[in-house]
Design a protein that fits this description.
Length: 200
């Protein structure tokens, strides 16, 4: 995978990262299967990265959730701004189908979010703001490396049939056969954070 330094000359870039477990209580319904969890195999995480070029700070927030509605996203961004002064926050969800409801989709989701799930969902807002604050506090001199590598872990799932388009494997359909990677490296070369993007 090719890599190149983004920071050049006397340019200074600061970066800091932090993570937090956001796993809901066992028994919470998961959005992907519409079934209640029976245990925890792997925790769900929120991960924050703050970059600062001396003129502007930006935060990138990645959550192991299936998605997020605009109302919750706006509340998170507002809380981050009030806690840290950061005005630009990108909120990203990994689209994890084993994650709990964060949007009132289906009767089960609406009931959970208005009942036992409300405390968990509302509690995300101050926790995520504090997480970004922790990432900002860990800021140190960093440089960026960017690259792309071939990968094939997914398949096209839109199949044309006589009845129309259906959601089934389509091995001949278009896919994105690469992964884009952004490394945030400390001056000693060790990674402070790694971001990647791949459509699977």
């Amino acid at each position: 995978m090719g890599a190149n330094h983004v920071t050049q000359g006397n340019a200074k870039l600061l970066g800091g990262a932090a993570e937090l477990v956001i796993t809901p209580p066992v028994g919470s319904p998961t959005l992907g299967t519409i079934q209640r969890s029976t245990g925890v195999h792997d925790d769900l995480y929120a991960r924050a990265l703050v970059l600062n070029d001396g003129k502007q700070r930006v935060a990138i927030l990645s959550l192991d959730l299936i998605g997020m509605d605009f109302v919750l996203s706006d509340r998170v961004r507002k809380a981050i701004h009030e806690r840290t002064g950061i005005s630009f926050t990108l909120v990203h969800c990994t689209h994890n189908h084993s994650a709990p409801f964060t949007i009132p989709w289906s009767v089960i989701g609406s009931r959970w979010l208005s009942g036992p799930g409300k405390t968990w969902r509302d509690g995300l807002v101050p926790k995520l703001a504090e997480l970004v604050s922790q990432a900002d506090a860990k800021s140190e001199a960093v440089f960026l490396r960017a690259g792309r590598a071939p990968v094939r872990v997914g398949t096209n799932r839109r199949l044309e049939t006589d009845e129309g388009l259906v959601m089934k494997p389509n091995p001949e359909g278009p896919v994105v056969p690469w992964v884009d990677v952004l490394r945030v490296d400390r001056l000693d070369g060790g990674p402070a954070a790694i971001l990647f993007s791949h459509a699977a």
